[in-house]
Design brief:
6-stranded mixed sheet; 330 residues; 2 domains; 29% strand; single chain
């Protein structure tokens, strides 16, 4: 199986000549008549992103994440460093580099959105020199965001202190991260963001808007159980949604000691389905929400004592590149 570094696009260049090679790349692009940044506009770069492709990343998965971060950069021009660790030491060179750049034109020729990629492949023996090389590749005086994807162990990732401490936000996806990723004692836990939580934003907004019509006491009084159902493809989303509802209902006055929270798989054919059920001491009161996140529709059914309400609504997850921006900036 090819290494993830080999699967990614770009031109291989000497590690010692990354900056010079990027300048030449744009010069060649402009000479060919393709969109390229002007020499004095600093490429309109707004931020640095380090995408760390962990040892559990396959070449196919690496390309998926590359396309996601490339799509993100259309809106937020970035300098992106992609780290590609090797499973074992290799003969020299212990570190290799690729560069890649693209510009997107906006409504006018002067509206250019440019992104620069630097891909770094490194062996275990080159690990002590990685932070120094990454610092050279980053644009100075711009915020850094660190996205750790499919890392094999939280303890190993914790060794990358330079990135964890300097980053304004550290992004993980708890659907593919180690089980302890959200509870690990990171040095800056307030900067940690879960992409699962971010891509659930439309679901959280829809539930919140519906339930906000009712006084908090109506939602919490007599509440006995909250059950989250999820399809096989949405186990992480079900877990994160359950934790969010626990916090929001506690804010409404529900006593955690009196309410039983549960998560249950939905039938096999509900691969992209989510569901929420509130049950009360009074069986006449209830709240049900079910959503098909592929078909894009959901159904609310509720009776909090004032009569039954049924409402159809849209349902879905944020696109991956939009979830990235949500996790980074909000």
């Amino acid at each position: 199986m090819p290494a993830i570094f080999e699967a990614l696009p770009g031109i291989e260049v000497p590690v010692s000549a990354i900056s010079k090679s990027l300048a030449q790349l744009w010069a060649n692009t402009a000479a060919d008549g393709r969109p390229a940044p002007e020499a004095d506009d600093a490429k309109a770069t707004q931020l640095n992103v380090v995408l760390h492709l962990g040892l559990n990343t396959t070449p196919e998965d690496a390309m998926v994440q590359f396309k996601v971060i490339s799509g993100f950069s259309v809106r937020y021009p970035s300098r992106i460093v992609v780290l590609c660790p090797l499973h074992a030491d290799v003969p020299a060179p212990e570190m290799r580099a690729k560069i890649y750049g693209e510009c997107h034109l906006g409504k006018s020729k002067v509206d250019k959105r440019c992104v620069e990629f630097v891909m770094l492949s490194y062996s275990r023996s080159a690990r002590p020199f990685l932070e120094n090389q990454v610092s050279v590749c980053l644009s100075t005086d711009l915020p850094l965001y660190y996205w750790a994807h499919r890392f094999s162990a939280s303890g190993r990732l914790a060794d990358y202190r330079y990135l964890l401490n300097r980053a304004k936000r550290v992004l993980i996806d708890s659907a593919v991260a180690p089980a302890d990723a959200l509870t690990y004692p990171w040095e800056n836990p307030s900067g940690l963001r879960d992409l699962v939580y971010s891509r659930l934003l439309p679901v959280r907004q829809s539930l919140g808007q519906f339930l906000s019509v009712y006084p908090p006491a109506v939602l919490s009084d007599g509440l006995r159980s909250v059950t989250i159902g999820h399809g096989a493809a949405l186990a992480a989303e079900g877990r994160v949604l359950s934790c969010w509802l626990q916090r929001r209902l506690a804010a409404c006055g529900a006593d955690p000691a009196d309410v039983k929270f549960g998560i249950a798989p939905l039938p096999a054919e509900s691969g992209a389905g989510l569901g929420v059920r509130f049950e009360y001491a009074n069986p006449a009161r209830f709240f049900h929400w079910s959503g098909d996140l592929v078909a894009g529709h959901a159904l609310f059914e509720a009776d909090f004592g004032g009569g039954r309400t049924t409402l159809s609504a849209a349902a879905g997850l944020l696109l991956p590149e939009t979830a990235l921006s949500e996790a980074m900036f909000f």
